[in-house]
Write a structure and sequence with these properties.
This protein has about 675 residues and is mainly β. It has three domains: about 20-165, Sandwich (Jelly Rolls); about 190-500 and about 505-515, Glycosyl hydrolase domain, family 43 (Tachylectin-2, Chain A, 5 Propeller); about 520-670, Exo-inulinase, domain 1 (Jelly Rolls). The longest helix is centred in the first third of the chain and has 14 residues, at about 1-15.
Length: about 675
């Protein structure tokens, strides 16, 4: 009921944004037909659309119940819609617009005396966005509007709504919905809303960006759509936290502009003022990000002099332009040995990572390239990261000196569990070139961990390398949550360990990921559950005992001569998620086949496995369950499985099982507090 009330309130609020008393409405498309418009072709149909049309992704951001939509019978159709004539009587002409970005073939045009004098188009998003023209110089003139759709390929359609004349230029993004939502007593408490993972209050979120520590705060920027609950209008959302779990939402850091979206990137603190943006005593925070426009991706700068509260784009952007359409996601760090900044950035379609050097963050020189390498099935490479880590012995100990470098990159398809995913290489970096000594390995063996990025500028006294990933998969990204979509993983501290996953193959250098220690502050109650050596599964908690799916399980499995043992988190008679160890496969696994709502995409249901060795006859699992997510850390983080789930109930029962009487499973339960209250 909470979810329904909140969603309904937001919808009603969006519908209650009419023209002001001084505005002149040209059309809001709330009539039964397009009688005020002359239509040619078949793209626009004969009446306003009720949101999405058959075969179209979800359309959002329009006012009322209807809009002008040229997706009738798909992108291949063409046509025009021409308004009746009107007099320009206000200094601004405002409208909502979405759809494709091909300005030559898709446009809303203001026409005077037969000549187009203003033009606008979409930005490859089904979320309509507020836009306007300054028409001070045209006051008193007769005009009409033409909506053109001559495009026939992908994104070959245009969306228009709520055209009006107004005295005040409207803001690009409406922020009233966010304030209204956060003021609601049930905000951040929808049934599927994670309670100790970061989520945006409203709308779509994907990759983490610009993770940096500065002046006692962890800064999390993220790819964000301020206009809707699906991908589009990419801007940098922003939040800060003192402890990686309790987050304060801040205004947009880098909003989309008329010229380009703000794609992924990073943030550094320029302590030596190499850029000249700040001073040595008051260093600037500098964001290095990809500016995306159709057919062109470049690397830009923005800087902040007030701890990230406000941002100024660099006047001489871009600072790196190779004339490419797929050149993105810079990660920059200071390399002390060569006394310069180093950038790793992706030539995505070529599957090549390029290293650049700079003394001032503004002028960049290519140093070397890496790739193609790794999985051969991937369609692209993006969101790279490069960092130095402690190299641990097989028992997890570290001598305090030995290190290695890790290069990570992400693919939009072809990953180990299907769909998108991440791979990494372990090697050496000398300030110019990265060289690896072993084959690529998977970062996470679940389906829902993507584009992790590590924090910059964590104090040396802390010494950790911490990263966060997007907890989703591009193939199944339209998950059934509202009024938000997207979640971040638990922050994870990183190391590299020598691991022999079995007795037949040589040891490898494995990336070890562990939940940060700060997570333990959320434990509210701890108790040991009964040890189990039985089949069928045995309940470890009573029905109704757990009022929420926000807990941590520490599990030790001794299989002996049994094939498997594990845990079931049951949320219905035939609904559960199973987490266990299979001795025949030498693998830990998560099976979400019967985990609840799996039918929203045919690829969602499945079983995902990660290599797991027995250590003195035991496999240890650390399991975090947060309403709609499961993260499993195997043997102190030697492998991880991250999966989203969408159960029909959040009052679970925990069960345990073994595949034979000689096996045993021991479990400790930690209840975890919400971070939103």
């Amino acid at each position: 009921m909470k979810q329904f009330c909140l969603s309904a309130a937001l919808v009603l609020m969006a519908w209650s944004l009419p023209t002001t008393a001084d505005d002149l409405l040209i059309d809001d498309f709330e009539t039964a037909d397009l009688g005020n418009w002359s239509i040619t072709g078949d793209a626009f149909g004969s009446q306003p659309a009720e949101g999405s049309l058959p075969g179209q992704m979800e359309v959002s951001g329009f006012y009322g119940q209807h809009l002008l939509n040229s997706f009738h019978n798909g992108d291949a159709t063409t046509g025009t819609a021409t308004s009746s004539e009107f007099t320009i009587e206000r200094p601004f002409l405002a409208f909502l617009i979405g759809g494709g970005s091909d300005r030559e073939r898709l446009a809303l045009e203001l026409v005077i005396d037969g000549t187009p004098v203003r033009s606008a188009t979409g930005s490859e998003s089904e979320a309509l966005l507020q836009a306007s023209w300054d028409v001070h110089d045209l006051l008193g003139k007769q005009a009409h509007l033409i909506v053109r759709d001559q495009a026939t390929g992908g994104w070959g359609h245009i969306l228009v709504d709520h055209i009006r004349q107004t005295d005040v230029k409207p803001p690009r993004f409406d922020t009233t919905a966010l304030a209204t939502y956060l003021a609601h007593p049930d905000a951040m408490d929808e049934p599927l809303r994670p309670q100790f993972h970061f989520t945006p209050p409203l709308n779509w979120m994907n990759d983490p960006n610009g993770l940096v520590y500065h002046e006692g705060e962890y800064h999390l920027f993220y790819q964000y759509n301020p206009a809707g609950n699906e991908w589009g209008h990419m801007s940098w959302g922003h939040a800060v936290s003192p402890d990686l779990f309790h987050w304060q939402f801040l205004p947009l850091a880098l909003p989309e502009t008329d010229a380009e979206m703000a794609f992924s990137g990073c943030c550094v603190v320029d302590h030596d003022n190499t850029s000249g943006f700040g001073t040595a005593d008051a260093p600037a925070m500098v964001a290095i990000y990809t500016g995306h426009a159709p057919g062109r991706q470049v690397q830009n700068l923005a800087y902040s002099l007030d701890n990230g509260r406000t941002w100024q784009r660099y006047a001489d952007n871009p600072v790196l332009d190779e004339g490419l359409a797929d050149f993105r996601d810079p990660k920059v760090f200071w390399h002390a040995e060569t006394n310069r900044w180093v950038m790793v950035v992706s030539r995505a379609i070529e599957k090549v990572l390029v290293f650049y050097g700079s003394e001032n963050l503004k002028d960049w020189t290519e140093l070397s390239r890496f790739g193609p390498a790794g999985a051969i099935s991937k369609p692209n490479w993006e969101c790279p990261d490069l960092f130095q880590l402690p190299l641990q012995a097989a028992d997890g100990s570290w001598d305090g000196e030995t290190t290695c470098w890790v290069l990570e990159a992400d693919m939009g398809g072809g990953a180990v569990a299907g769909g998108s995913g991440s791979e990494y290489f372990v090697g050496e970096f000398d300030g110019v070139r990265f060289q690896t000594g072993q084959a690529a390995r998977w970062v996470d063996y679940g389906r829902d961990f993507y584009a992790p990025v590590s924090f910059d500028n964590i104090p040396a006294s802390d010494g950790r390398r911490i990263w966060i990933g997007w907890m989703n998969n591009w193939e199944t990204s339209l998950v059934p949550t509202s009024p938000w979509r997207g979640a971040m993983s638990i922050p994870r501290s990183l190391a590299v360990r020598v691991v022999a996953f079995n007795s037949e193959e040589p040891a490898v250098l494995a990336l070890v990921q562990q939940p940060v220690a700060e997570l333990q502050q959320l434990r509210s109650e701890t108790r040991k559950l009964a040890a189990v050596s039985a089949w069928p599964p045995v309940p470890l908690t009573e029905p109704g005992e757990l009022a929420d799916m926000t807990f941590e399980l520490e599990v030790e499995i001794e299989t002996a001569d049994a094939r498997s043992a594990g845990i079931r988190i049951r949320t219905g008679d035939e609904e559960f998620i199973e987490i266990g160890y299979d001795r025949f496969d030498a693998a830990a696994y998560v099976d979400r086949t019967r985990s609840g709502n799996t039918g929203f995409h045919p690829a969602f249901a499945g079983r995902h496995a990660a290599p797991a060795r027995q250590i003195n006859g035991t496999v240890s699992l650390r399991i975090f369950v947060d309403r709609s997510s499961v993260e499993v850390f195997v043997n102190d983080g030697e492998a991880v499985i991250t999966d989203r789930i969408f159960p029909t109930s959040i009052t679970p029962t925990i069960e345990a099982f073994t595949g034979g009487p000689t096996a045993e499973i021991r479990t400790t339960l930690h209840r975890l507090k919400t971070t939103w209250r």
